[in-house]
Amino acid sequence: MTLPSTTAAPADPDFLKTMGEDLRKGLLPLRVFNNQQIYDAELRRIFARSWVYIGHESELPNPGDFAMRTIGEDPFIFVRGTDGVIRVLLNACRHRGAQICRTEMGNAKGFICPFHGWSYRNTGALMGMPVKREGYKALDESKWGLFEAPRVESYCGLVFANLDAQAPSLEDSLGDYKWYLDIQFKLSDGGMEVVGEPHRWIVEANWKQGAENFCGDSSHTQMTHRSVLDAGIADRAAAGSPNKKHGFHVHDCDGYAISIRQVDEGIDKFWEYPPDVTRHFNTNRLSPAQLALARRSIVHNGTVFPNFSFLHIGLKDSVDRPAAGYLSVRAWQPRGPGRTEIWNWIMVPKEASDDYKRRAYQVGMSSFGPSGSFEQDDVAVWPGVARSAATVFAEINEVKLNYQMGLGDMSDAVPMTDWVGPGVAVLSNAGEGGLRTFHKTWYARMTGQDLAAVEKEVGHG
Ligand code: FES
Ligand SMILES: [Fe+2]
After folding, report:
1. Is position 388 within any domain?
2. Residues with CB in 5 Å of ion ligand 2
3. Residue 300: per-residue pLDDT
């Protein structure tokens, strides 16, 4: 069974009507970060119509493996069926709607509803019920399987689902941004794999807060994370020092953005992966330009709209141990207009040794895990934005925030004319072009406009 696409749309708040004009000036209505009306519309217009990250194929290596996931706030079961096919099944019994699966993850041939005992195979097909002969003699069981997300596609093992059956393909939606995703996920023949289980925690902030941050909010690092820099866990270049040669942003890349920090040409860094990991890298899987960038890289962070982000970085868990590279992938799960459940997975190249995987996991958890040195800084400041956004003052004064860093004549930095990758690249950390790109894409999806039309109205930059 497939789900019909969602079309219901609540009325728009007034500030959405002037959003294009605001974005052109680098302004953003504060209320987008905590507004029930906007949030209800986002669930329907964005989460029900976009490619939403579900999980990585390496989380379900065997038939029957499953894990609970969400699209917006809707509960789904991410499961590899006995037939080997990965599906995203709505966790709702067809009889009376009870949740058929209550375990976070595991392996099962099927699921039995705890209410009246209808049972389903791990492919979603209805298997039977306790009073089948007595009460459902004429039931056509083939019509009563679990609902499933109509579109499930993957790229580099990253599985996304879309509740809109008419949506363009995942690859078309990722567009030119695949060039940057390839650099993170195609380093070795086996690609990246998830280590351990995802960690999850709640932050009293809007889901867009983390998503826009990962588009290139470089300037917060020196302030929010100063204590980590002072402790020497990350060097200042990796943390986004204003040194021009080391940091650049790419924005307006088919609606997405990435922030990159690198060292001088000729130095191999590969995000601090040690030689016993880099020796597994297959240099033929990337183009020469992608490979050259990977070599010099110390940090990459980006967001695939709406709520999937990644951070590729090398860090220490102690000042007297060497840094270790890892890839953190994240989902900013909406849990209300002012609440987000952060999901964080640690990934490493599949061919790395078990020892290295353990080490990368430790470093990942100690930096960007729920009590990580960096993470606890971010979740201390983000709730303040949601609190301000909910104020009556912001509502009656139509408060707009400043997203003007590096916009137009604010900066002397101009797009790099010789940039070899897609998107608009600016060799400066003093810019918020990536954040503006995120909100342009948001505005396009919320108003049902083509991204091209929005870019024309708002401009590049
Ligand atoms: S609600 Fe599932 S069997 Fe009745
Ligand atoms: Fe941060």
Report:
1. yes
2. 378
3. 97
